[in-house]
Design goal:
about 450 residues; 24 strands; elongated; alpha+beta
Length: about 450
Amino acid sequence: MSKKKRALKALVWLGVIVAACMYFSRTIQTITTPKVKLVQATTGRIEQKISVEAKPYFPVETEITLNKAKDYPITVDKVYVKPGLLVKEGDTIFTATINDYQTKEEDLLTKYNEKSQELIDLDIKNRKNSKQSMQNDLYDLMIEKQDALNEAESKARLAAAAEGIELTFDQTLWEAKAKQAGASSETVALIRTAATAREAFQTARDDFYASYENKKIKVSDEVFKYINDRNKLLQEMQDLSDQMVKLLEAKQALGTVTATSEGYIVALDLKAGDSYDGQKSAYTIAKKEDVPVLRADVTDLKKDVTEGARVEVAGDYDTFRSEVTAVVDDTDGRRYAEIELTDDFLRTAGGMQKLLQDGSLQVSIVFRARKNATIIPASALRSEGEGEYVFVAEREYGGFLNSGGLKAKKTSVTVIDRSDTAVSVQEDLSYQSIIDRADRTVEDGKPVMEYVE
């Protein structure tokens, strides 16, 4: 073989060896170089959603107390509503029975009949006597004015005592003493009312005693006593009749308790068989005009919640939105965000009854940055000590023996805001290929390869 052929053959083998080396070097480089996922930064306002527990809250609640039950305690028969139910005015809340109603009714009727028989017997016995006289009328008026005086004096003394003023027996000195002690205008007015009542009583008393000297109106002691006894019986019968009417009214009012206005039943602790005596509220209602809201405790959130902030709740097939209507500091020292309870939110919760039963609804408050910034995925951000940075991929162009490729470059960033999935930074990273994820450790200045799915 000539030298020329041997040289050509050696050259061919050299080319094969070089090609093989290049091939295996690329293979080794491919195996050892980190495969990275590249992303592009965007510009906008970062949003962060924080999940909070929102509870139904009624800004205005009306407690309904059945005052008649104080005089006529009842036992609940059947309850027709539950907390959370929307009722209309007149809807039945519960039915009840007045305790010992039959016994009370029979007792009043028996007493009335007894007094009625006494009146008949008295009238028969005094059938020849007059049933009324001016002298008896004057007597009754005197007793009426005396009762009014006692009541007026009691009110004045109690009012004065509440202000540390002791009124003596002599009423004529009350007003002067009260003014000297600096009594309120209300107390002075009560003292003057008592003085007027005393004058009225004195006049009625004088008129009655004067009747004994007036032969035209004076009656015998027997007739005077008869008329007084008769008037007393009539008054007792009137009182018994009034009690029977009140008992019947209580039966009608307490037998079927109805809603006094349209609204949501907030609380109802009574159940069938319970006794109720009017000492506490029978039920609590939030009237229709007193719109309920959702209330979330935001005291411990690291973000400031403001009025108008967007609130979201996830439905079965969609996400529904509402907003914060107010942020309030309550008397318990906690800070609350009040959220509009929309129909969509209420439907997602399963209705007011289900919401009150569960006690709360999980919602998300959306926090949006106030200004635009560069936004990158949170997974692309790395930290070192107190500083934070990202890797960007820079392209390198090689020669014949040095192939081109991508190289990682460490770039410091200043974080403005962050959420669970994204971070906003101050630096402009437009048109930069940012390394998001890698299959192994990325080092500054070292080659990387883009991972293609």
